[in-house]
Amino acid sequence: MNLKLLKLLNKNCRRSNREIAVMTGRTEQEIDESIEKLEKDGVIRGYKAVIDWERLDNTYVSAIIELTVTPKAGAGFEEVAKKVMKYPEVESVYLMSGAYDLNVVVKGKTFQEVAMFVAKELSTLENVTSTTTHFVLRRYKELDVELFDEKSDDRGSYSF
Amino acid sequence: MIDYNKVLNPSVVQLKPSGIRRFFDIAETMEDVVSLGVGEPDFSTPWQIRKEGITALEQSHTRYTANRGLMKLRTTIANYIGRKYDLHYRPETEILVTVGGSEAIDMAIRSVVSEGDEVIIPQPSYVCYEPITKLAGGTPVIVETKAEDRFKLTPEALKVAITPKTKALILPYPCNPTGAIMERDDLLAIAEVLKDTDILVISDEIYSELTFGKNSHVSFGALPGMAERTIVINGFSKAFSMTGWRLGYACGPAPLIKQITKIHQYAIMCAPTMSQYAAIAAMTACDDVVEKMLEEYDMRRRMIVAGFNDLGLHCHEPLGAFYAFPSIKSTGLSSEEFCEKLLYSKHVAIVPGTAFGDSGEGFVRASYCYSTDHIKKALQRIGEFLQEL
User: Fold this and answer.
1) Domain count, chain B
2) A126 is in which domain, residue-wise?
3) Is A150 a residue whose pLDDT tops 70?
4) Cα-flanking dihedrals φ and ψ of residue B359, to 5°?
């Protein structure tokens, strides 16, 4: 039951609880309680808008940084990952399988700013052995949302 | 100069044009129309199916198939309706692949109805049964289903409609536009009325995959002893979002399918070949996609029904298809007036209940083949419209 609720919130967290209740055939109170519990249990970690920053005048740049890290005895990659995630410039941090170890998404105002952050902060961290920076040139889809004007409905207004 | 009134077949000329044509023409001239008027899914055909269609083209499957349809598809259909609806038909002789459910309905009626035969048609229902019956020389006998019966066909109403001339009963459930379904007991009661007669049942089950709550679809053909009098019609359009592929099928006793196949053979040859190849994937690899779509429809259904009831337009709970059928009697307007005013003043397109028979008066059909945001926008405008009445 919560899975359905989570899917709905994941798609659009601005629906009212009343509306979710109607759509799922539960009561509003049940939805209130479920959400509260999911938040308390740390299943729901936050609510954010999906924004197409390119539509605004202020500049926004992001990059995916591949970090290779020498794992520390006893702590593995954890220590570095936790350091990296504390930077406000860092949007997300993932431990990866394959050719490198940490995938870090960094945002900034300009290419220069992001590049300098990588050079000065990430690459100098203890146990980080290399960084590779990939700048994002264009966003097509983010968090399940297509960042393009929706295709208009080609069905016309009426049919049987 | 040819006088076309003299050359045209009078039975064609006398057919009433579709009840939504006028509205369609008005809507076409408008900007910013929010429509709940469409009777087809908004989902794209699932990718697995489209991929098979593309593969069929790549492999040059672009010629005719057997008149009855690809054997592999007929076998697939037999397995599918066997596991889903407990229907058991031999692919060799009892299943015919058609150009949509529509062609199957047309041929089923034409193959059994001749001059003077009566065909019992419950209404409100899909628009094609009456004109096709008339074209075949038959007489439509309309049985009005009622909101208080949840728009089901009752055995009492059926008994009253039966005469010695009755040839066939159309059973259009799950029902467009009412959203009504017939549960097993409802169907058993109908079977009881028919059992010692020669009346055939043409069961249009095109919305069979779209039933909600605990109610899975029951096919009339699966009832004890009823297969011999039943032509089951179904198709791929609604369940698999394949309206444009034009693919359906008819199942029935071999002697009936044999005759229907003759019409099909002379009029159509065969259903579209690439569609047939794609449809095999629909029935073998898409259960989970269909399930997801159904879940989405169900949420929209709850939202639109609650929405109409909140606005004071009483709406019974539709348990099948993808339409809500609220009553607009409280406004004092006729269905046509309601829809026309709503379209002009708020640019919301819905279909008057009367488009589906006179007994649809006092109701309107709102499709929920739209995103929840779209449905909310439409409901909001309808709310404003009601305030301003």
Assistant:
1) 2
2) 53-139
3) no
4) -70, -5
| Statement to judge: residues A9 and A82 lie in one domain | no
Structural domain includes residue A8:
yes
Q: Give residue-wise pLDDT tens across range A14-50.
A: 999 999 999 999 999 999 999 999 999 999 999 999 9
Domain co-membership, A34 together with A59? no
Range of the domain at B303: 4-45+288-388
- Give CA A91 to chain center in angstroms: 7
Contact A157 B306 (CB under 8 A): no
The verdict on A79 and A116 lying in the same domain is: yes
Inter-CA distances, B283 with B227, B250, B320, Å: 22, 16, 20
Q: Measured between CB atoms, does B131 come within 8 Å of chain A?
A: no
The verdict on a CB contact (< 8 Å) between B33 and A19 is no
User: What is the total count of domains within chain A?
Assistant: 2
Q: What is the value of ipTM here, to two decimals?
A: 0.82
Q: Mark out the alpha helices in A42-152 (DSSP H runs).
A: 78-85, 111-117
**What does the angle CA A138 – CA A46 – CA A114 come to, to the nearest 5 degrees?**
35
Whether A105 maps to a domain, the answer reads: yes
Q: How far is B21 from chain A (nearest CA, A)?
A: 8
Q: Is A88 an interface residue toward B (CB < 8 Å)?
A: no
Q: Please indicate, yes or no, if residue A160 is contained in any of the structural domains.
A: no
A152 touches B at CB < 8 Å:
no
- What's the longest Cα–Cα distance across chain B? 62
Q: CB neighbours (10 Å) of residue A137?
A: 6
